[in-house]
Every structure is written in C-alpha cells, then in structure tokens.
Amino acid sequence: MTRFLMADGPVDSVALRTCLLRAEAGGFCSFEGWVRQTNDGRPVLGITYEAYAPLAVTEGQTILDEALARFDITDVVATHRSGYLRVGEIAVWIGVAAPHRDAAFRACRYVIDEIKKRVPIWKHEHYADGKAGWVACHRSE
Amino acid sequence: MPRIELEYFAQLSEATGQRTETRDTAALTAAALYDELRAQYGFVLPPGRMRVAVNAAFRPWDQELSEGDLVVFIPPVTGG
C-alpha cells in the first residue's frame, strides 16, 4: 500500500485523517509543517518545493515502513507538497493512528525527523525583498 | 565510454543551468563522475555533503556506472 505521497496541489488533511480511522486505534496524532513568514529573521513570501519525486516516494515509503515496524501503531500516512506554496500553506502532513497515545506521538516525531533528513526535497525560498535562494541545510531543531 | 543520463536539482541545476544532461564520460564510478562535473561546473558542495542515486535508488559513491544509467547527485535535503 502506498502510504507516502507527493502532491502538487493543496493537502486535504480531513481526507488523510479519515483514511486512518480504525476500530482498533485508540488515538490519532498528526503533524503539519507550514510555510513560515520568516527564515533566519528574513521575511519570506513563499517557498517552492522541488523534489526528485521517484526517489522521494520510495524513501518516504521506507520511512513509514520503518515506523510501522518500530512502533506499536495501527497505520501511518504522509504527504509532502511540491511546487510553490504561500505562507501558511501545509508543506508536509503526517498522521499516525495507534492503540495508545505514546506510540502515536513517538512514531509521528520519528517520521517528520527522518523526512527532513532523508527525503530528496529542497526548499527554494522567495523573500520579500524580491530575492530567492536555496536553503543550504537544516538547522538541528 | 558509457553514455550517462543526469538529472540536476536545487543548487546543482542552478550551477549547470540545466535540468538534464546526456554525457559520455570516462568516469568509472559515481565519485569520479561527480569530480568531473565539479571541475566543469564549479559545484560548491564537496562529495562528503552529498549523496548519489543511480536509477532512482541511493547508492554508494564507488558504484560503477553502466551505459544508460540515470545518475542524480543529491545536495543536502531541506524538505519538511
């Protein structure tokens, strides 16, 4: 089953949540990454996300498979955007359903951390002063 | 001399001025090909900060190249 998707249009978080509903799950945890209005104190208008899609999908799927093997969860799905996003739009969405909350929280954290480390996607930020640039690398946050 | 397909992303696309390239190369490995491209295009990033994918799968730098391989050098990722 394909649990990791690359999307070139807005993320439908309601539909994604619905596909995780299970009678055996006692809780659900999600993380949304949003486009923020500043980066390093510099005003940002939007971000273009560029992806090497075939590898992004297989690496994303690998991360979700790892989460299923590592944590006591019922299911997990994730979607990452490509293309131009304005401030406030959802860039990444992760949802985890689990019998109990602890595994749901930990799996959700694992998936976003690994996506940020391993999935071939790059941010090209568009600044309010008209300039644009590739984000060099993630800070350890 | 194998003919290699290249696809460029992010900073590498900017440095080369192109998204794709077909290249006849004497480079035997992915590492040697990156050195060759770096010399031509002036890529800033050293190989230690990069990864390489061959035919849409991550591979080690000493991966040998074959005719028709699709090679993508992966700068530090910044998704999420």
TrEMBL record, chain A:
Its EC number is 2.8.1.12. GO terms for molecular function: molybdopterin synthase activity. It comes from the Bacteria. Keywords: Molybdenum cofactor biosynthesis. GO terms for biological process: Mo-molybdopterin cofactor biosynthetic process. It catalyses: 2 [molybdopterin-synthase sulfur-carrier protein]-C-terminal-Gly-aminoethanethioate + cyclic pyranopterin phosphate + H2O = molybdopterin + 2 [molybdopterin-synthase sulfur-carrier protein]-C-terminal Gly-Gly + 2 H(+). Pathway: Cofactor biosynthesis; molybdopterin biosynthesis. It holds the Pfam family MoaE. Converts molybdopterin precursor Z into molybdopterin. This requires the incorporation of two sulfur atoms into precursor Z to generate a dithiolene group. The sulfur is provided by MoaD. Belongs to the MoaE family. Heterotetramer of 2 MoaD subunits and 2 MoaE subunits. Also stable as homodimer. The enzyme changes between these two forms during catalysis. This is Molybdopterin synthase catalytic subunit. It comes from Gluconacetobacter dulcium.
From TrEMBL, chain B:
It holds the Pfam family ThiS. The keyword Calcium does not apply. One of its GO terms (molecular function) is nucleotide binding. The keyword Nucleotide-binding applies. GO terms for cellular component: molybdopterin adenylyltransferase complex. GO terms for biological process: Mo-molybdopterin cofactor biosynthetic process. Keywords: Nucleotide-binding. Belongs to the MoaD family. This is Molybdopterin synthase sulfur carrier subunit. It comes from Gluconacetobacter dulcium.
